[in-house]
Fold this protein.
Amino acid sequence: MTKALNKIVPSLHNLQTIHFWQADLITHTLLSLKTILPLCCSLRTVVLEGNPMAENSYHLLMSEDSNVAHLSLRHNQIGEEGARLIGSALSTIHSANKNLVSLNLAFNSMGDAGARHIAWGLRLNRSLLCLSLANNHIGDAGAAVLAEILSPFPLTHEEIVERRRLKIQRDHSPTQDLGTDRPVSVPSSCSVEQNVSKAAKGSSKKKEKTSGSQVGSGKKEELKLAKKTSDTKAQRNRQKPVAKDRPPSVVDSESADGGDIVSSLLDPGVQHIGGEIIMPGNTALTSLNLSGNLLTEKSMQLFYSSLQAQGDGGGLLRLGLSKNCFPSDCEGFLKIQELMTHRDPLNKSSATQAEEGHGPAE
């Protein structure tokens, strides 16, 4: 099957999704699939559902060089060990996946221990937008760790050491442009002078055969060459790309507006409070589904506090909490619903249209 895919996929230029449902996949198949996926430039969605593996090798599709943007791993009996491998693939203190946008891990019996591994993977991951952990037997202990990483949290000793190493590497790196996309090279002033000198020598050898008017025209050509070179240098300076257009590097780890960062540990929002180094919470994640788990009212209070700490500068826009172990009239749950309603951009646009007379708000 993988040999057939290896021949078929490169010719399917518009292929966007590969879906395997109960296909009895094994680790060898995943390794082959990992090499096949980059052959199709438009392929970004991979669905591997109902394919339990004893080796729990699903993380192979989440490596740093993987182009997979949407990955669904429902009903694969991933468990705690598989969750640990996936959490490490999301991020560690040394690396982080930067391409995966959505991850569906529903119906995998991860429990609190598995949720804890996933939460640790989200500490330094800033690319994942949608995560589903529905129906995974997650209780208040696992929810507490997930809620913690949404709001500012203290760095561990290992994270502090790695942050210092990255800062030292950044501060001691050369400041020149390390980007691979360089402008087309133009002659330098030294090379221009050499060319002019050679032209002058060549013209002197033919001086006896040339008239005075020809010598004069040679000087004019030299002046034109020098002027053309200076104009080219001026145009190059005007068209020189700004720093934000360069590929990210350690030198460019912190942009002026806190944009692209090589490692989240170098986030400019890191603060020193009470003897601890506090990391801004994960506000990249916009959707978290925890439906069908074992959460109680205690978890509702924790999530509400974390959502409040995120403020209006980003963070969760959707939090799925249905079919858990708390009553529908739970105070914390009602507060979360109200907060999510105000954050939902669709509700805001509907309300704006109603105010402007374009239609009723839902």
User: Anything to note?
Assistant: Residues 2-163+276-355 form a domain with the Leucine-rich repeat, LRR (right-handed beta-alpha superhelix) fold (CATH 3.80.10.10).
